[in-house]
Design goal:
Layout lengths: L13 E8 L7 H14 L4 E5 L7 H4 L18 E3 L2 E5 L15 H12 L6 E7 L6 H9 L4 E6 L3 H16 L4 E7 L2 E3 L6 E3 L5 H9 L3 E5 L3 H8 L4 H4 L4 H17 L3
Parallel strand pairs: 1-5, 1-6, 2-4, 2-5, 6-7, 7-10
Antiparallel strand pairs: 3-4, 8-9
Helix pairs in contact: 1-9, 3-4
Bound molecules: adenosine-5'-diphosphate and magnesium ion (MG).
Adenosine-5'-diphosphate (ADP) binds next to helix 1 and helix 7.
Length: 264
């Protein structure tokens, strides 16, 4: 048996792969990943989303695909599901909902291998990976198994979140994954009653961190109840309110990403 690191392999039919990442949970990775994928599809980029959060998959809920099961192609490869013009695959389609996944080590690697290499994607320009939090098994398996065009780091402007974001950046730097930039999420909240701006998690922590680390700031998504509500309803903001300022912020983010990795 060959020892050492696994060799990186291409994912059949998939062009560029971009990870939406942060070592911290709850900062909006899944919400950003799904809206980014939907924005890309609306900008004419053929896009898929792969939910790599095997412990807490969110994509089935976010795309209103809960309870759906993927079919197999003649070669026993998983056929992705489709929602709002985006192809999607998630461990959430393969294990019963609400039952916790208690895997580690080799089982994680096996599950990740299945998700990375045994999905029958149609020809895609872009595959977005919704990453789990942390800097552990899953992150290492992914970064060592496939070639990533880069990672978008999501963080709130809060110090605590930024510290974890930086830990994630360090790991990606170590394993040679290009950092495309950082996205500040859940920054300013504008009160729907009085119109006042409130900086719940701080104002420009991510911008400052970007300056400090010489990382590009890719965008800023305000804290808005609609984003949260649309996520729970399984119809993300880019689809549910396509002309609103929130959807436009995700479109601007996607344009910034496309520019960085030169997608058509
Ligand atoms: N910009 C935003 N405005 C309002 N709520 C948001 C925003 N971004 C994310 N959320 C909400 O924050 C929570 C955590 O987001 P999620 O995408 O699941 O984070 P992660 O994948 O990093 O754990 C969810 O309830 C989501 O709807
Ligand atoms: Mg998530």
């Amino acid at each position: 048996m060959k020892r050492g690191l696994p060799e990186k392999r291409p994912i059949t039919n998939v062009g560029k792969v971009v990870a939406v990442s942060s070592a911290k949970g709850g900062v909006g990775k899944s919400t950003v990943a799904v809206n980014l994928a939907l924005a890309a599809a609306r900008q004419g980029i053929t896009t898929g989303i792969l939910d790599t959060d095997i412990y807490g998959p969110s994509i089935p809920t976010l795309l209103n695909l809960e309870g759906m099961e993927p079919d197999l192609d003649p070669n026993n490869r998983l056929l992705p599901l489709t929602a709002y013009g985006v192809k999607a695959m998630s461990m959430g389609f393969l294990v019963p909902q609400d039952s916790p996944v208690a895997w580690r080590g080799l089982m994680v690697q096996k599950a990740m291998n299945q998700l990375l290499f045994e999905v029958s994607w149609p020809k895609l320009d872009l595959l977005i990976l919704d990453m789990p939090p942390g800097t552990g098994d899953v992150q290492l398996t992914i970064t060592q198994s496939i070639e990533l065009a880069g990672a978008v780091i999501v963080s709130t402007p809060q110090d605590l979140a930024l510290r974890d974001a930086v830990r994630g950046v360090d790991l990606l730097n170590k394993v040679g994954v290009p950092i495309l930039g950082m996205l500040q999420n859940m920054s300013t909240f504008t009160c729907t009653n009085c119109g006042h701006h409130h900086d719940i998690f701080g104002l420009d922590g991510v911008r400052k961190k970007c300056d400090q680390l010489s990382i590009k700031l890719l965008g800023d998504i305000p804290l808005h109840p609609q984003i949260c509500h649309d996520a729970d309803a399984g119809k993300p903001t880019v689809v549910s309110a396509p002309d609103g300022p929130q959807a436009q912020a995700f479109h601007a983010l996607m344009r910034a990403v496309a520019e960085t990795i030169s997608i058509p």
